Every structure is written in C-alpha cells, then in structure tokens.
Amino acid sequence: MRWPVIFLALLVVALQYPLWLGKGGWLRVWDVDRQLQSQRETNRQLEQRNAGLEAEVRDLKSGNEAIEERARFELGLTKPGEIFVHTPQKP
C-alpha cells in the first residue's frame, strides 16, 4: 500500500515542477509581470516629459512671449530702460 502512495506523490511533484519552476512557470510569469509594471511606470514618466516638451515647442512656435521669457532666464536678456539685478542665493 505504501508504494502506490509514494508513486502518486512523486507523480504529482513531477507534474507540478513545470508549472512552478519551468520555462513558462508561475515564477517566470511573476517576474515578467514585475518587469512589465516597471516598464509601464517608465513609459508613463516619459510620456509626461514628452507632453511637457511638446507644450514648450508649441509655445515657442506660436508666439514671442515664450522666446522672450526663455531669453531672459537663460541668457539674461534685458529690454532698453530695464535694470538687471542679480541676487546670489545662499548655498
């Protein structure tokens, strides 16, 4: 009576091995799902960055205000009659 039980237990283990540890097993599925979630988060962040860049390009194409603002902050542009005052920030 003992041999059939041991045989059936080994048979169950042999059938379960590919399900859990095989090439397409649950452990691999969980790992791929984790990678998928990570990639989706990366894609979401990149989509937000791209939307911001697209809006900036639209602003630069549509009018002079965005160009002037960028020139003021990045290049120190001043109009005639304006006085530029730079206050250094404490580290």
UniProtKB/TrEMBL annotation:
**Membrane protein topology class:** Single-pass type II membrane protein
Q: Kindly give the InterPro entries that the UniProt entry links to this protein.
A: Cell_div_FtsB, FtsL/DivIC
In its keyword annotation, does this UniProt entry include Transmembrane helix?
A: yes
Which Pfam families does the protein's record reference? DivIC
The keyword Metal-binding belongs to this UniProt entry's keyword annotation: no
Q: Where in the cell is it found?
A: Cell inner membrane
Its function, per the record, reads: Essential cell division protein. May link together the upstream cell division proteins, which are predominantly cytoplasmic, with the downstream cell division proteins, which are predominantly periplasmic.
Q: What is the protein's name according to its record?
A: Cell division protein FtsB
Q: What organism, scientifically named, is this protein from?
A: Aromatoleum diolicum
